[in-house]
Sequence to fold (277 residues):
Amino acid sequence: MSVTRFAPSPTGLLHLGHGYSALFARRQAGADGTMRLRIEDIDRSRCRPAFISAIFEDLAWLGLDWPKPVRLQSEHFQEYGAQLDRLAARDLLYPCFCTRAQIAAEASAALTAPHGSAPLYPGSCRALALTERQDRIAAGEAHAWRLDVAAAAHQVGRLTWTDLTRGDLVAQPELLGDVVLSRRDFPASYHLAVTCDDALEGIEIVTRGEDLVEATHLHRLLQALLELPVPVWNHHPLIRDEFGERLAKRHNVASLRDLRDQGVTAAALRAQLGFPD
Ligand code: GLU
Fold:
């Protein structure tokens, strides 16, 4: 029996992949354990309140229950800011003034993009002189804050983490490059918020899709830097459509709500996803 969580972002209606993830978290918690629900809504440009109510409704329809109140990340920017300050105090952050277009152009020129994924940040702003950083910030230039992953990894040394399916792994926090921890449009990022919240909410087993394994390598580093408790993880396979494509909201995939409206019962859906009880 454990504490697990399901942490959707309210950027659209939940689909089968989310249903699978939530039921997986519920099963992983065990009969007497707790599955928490957390709303990851820091990206104010993409998240909508209507999708938050839809999440509650659709999960309840699936037969799930969770402790209240539910944590909404958008209400905790100050806490993320405080953790960011701790990293800054260790001299591990640098301001990045690059736009997405600049990063994409530089990364493709340097061929740093692993096949099929977003380009890794080539580190251009890491080399800026302190005076230039200060001048550009003072001039009001928009910037994000990035983690100097190599310096951070050097400070904490070798780290390991455990996945209940994959076993013990040596952390490779460099897989995602120098990630953004505070965005130019709001003062946090997924990586920072999720790491802080999993610790704060006492999550013992972090369950989520296997598309986030690379992120876990980085989160292990953030936990070490911020002296947070270390959970274990279980990354589950992704639900795919009939063409083998992973379900994503942007692909116009049927939502749980569509299926319900078409007369599919929650019991049938649970059985289809492999969670009949
Ligand atoms: N909020 C993330 C998403 O909806 C999930 C993050 C996680 O489980 O760590 O994709």
